[in-house]
């Protein structure tokens, strides 16, 4: 079934999704108050947690920042025990950055805060409504992934 909607619908959908993501992100970052980590450092940790070990060059590309900025972030996070640098197994001249157990703890803490927030928000729905809403959002996500 194909539903015809005007451009205003898509503008409103974008706005709604942006605001939802923002509120989830803000609530999750409440957990960062327990750690000496900036939002930029958190973004780097999050990439390592979800994407696995990366070279400095790849991290810079993923984050969309200069290598010098990435180096500063990595240096501080390594100093505080959230990640470590090591030579690549494939080429010992290449340095790979990987998250430590402490860094993973930070990510898990933020994810737990996000999940708690979503549970509170979703508790306003009747159970069946919440499930249907989630299914529709998952379908939307799959369509967006396919169009990449």
TrEMBL record:
Keywords: DNA-binding, Transcription, Transcription regulation
Cited InterPro entries: HTH_MarR-typ, WH-like_DNA-bd_sf, WH_DNA-bd_sf
GO molecular function, one term: DNA-binding transcription factor activity
Gene3D superfamilies in the cross-refs: Winged helix-like DNA-binding domain superfamily/Winged helix DNA-binding domain
Recorded superkingdom: Bacteria
Residue ranges of coiled coil: none
Domain HTH marR-type: 10-142
Protein name according to UniProt: MarR family transcriptional regulator
